[in-house]
Amino acid sequence: MTSYAKPLLRLLEALEKLPGIGPRSAERIAFYLLRTSKEETRQLAQAVVDVKERLRFCGACFNLSETSRCQVCEDATRDPSILCVVEEPKDILAIEKTGAYHGLYHVLLGAIAPLDGIGPELLKIDELLSRLTDGVVQEVLIATDADKDGETTAAYLAKLVRSRNGLKVTRLASGIPVGSHLEYADQATLARALEGRREL
User: Fold this and answer.
1) Burial of 180 by CB count in 10 Å (0-12 exposed, 13-18 middle, 19+ buried)?
2) Distance CA 185, CA 100 (A)
3) What is the sign, positive or negative, of the torsion defined by CA atoms of 182, 173, 103, 165?
4) 7-22 pLDDT, tens digit each
5) Helix axes 187-195, 89-96, angle to 10 degrees
């Protein structure tokens, strides 16, 4: 039985490690890359290297940034009294597209998932709490995903923030389907959820 050449097998193995890419998708991508020019392939490879070398986490909110502070944290027109807590940097983009939120963000870099061995200590929760000590933030809007892990994280954060700081704690309102992820919500639905957020 014949097999693919070793360089192609290595590429297929690498592609299959990406989330959502199975063997068939890996084959389609690999053969697409084989058909493209060397220059296009080099550009793709360079883009991947640039992301790894040039992007870092913002020192304040843990959004992705090319500098020590991200564009949102550097924007003096943002309302510093409200802090929106999200799971991943991609969630910030989803919320920003609505145009309905003008405060600052804090990225947890994940969600509490006991079955996956992810506890609160692995998230940026201590950093969140330290941002709440100066008296500037008046409301913490918890915008974690509406799935089991997101709800667990939201409940944990609400209890923690309320007990230590007595701040107003809100959660995105209905409009985000249970079990869904923010990145897949359309702009109108997400805008409605932001406007109708509720206190926890």
Assistant:
1) middle
2) 14
3) negative
4) 999 999 999 999 999 9
5) 90
| Single-letter code of the amino acid located at 13 | E
Kindly give, in sequence order, each residue whose CB lies less than 8 Å from that of residue 51, ignoring residues fewer than 6 positions away: none
Express each pLDDT in 144-186 by its tens digit.
998 899 999 999 999 999 887 678 999 987 666 667 777 777 7
Matching CATH number, 76-199, of 3.30.470.20, 1.25.40.10, 3.40.50.1000, 3.40.1360.10: 3.40.1360.10
Contact 182, 189 (CB under 8 A): no
Homologous superfamily of the 6-54 domain (CATH): RecR Domain 1 (1.10.8.420)
Does the pTM of the predicted model rise above 0.85? no
Residue with tokens 């995105």: 172
**Helix axes of 23-35 and 6-16: crossing angle, nearest 10 degrees:** 130
Chain length of the chain: 200
DSSP string, 84-125: EEESSHHHHHHHHTTT---EEEEE-SS--BGGGTB-GGGTTH
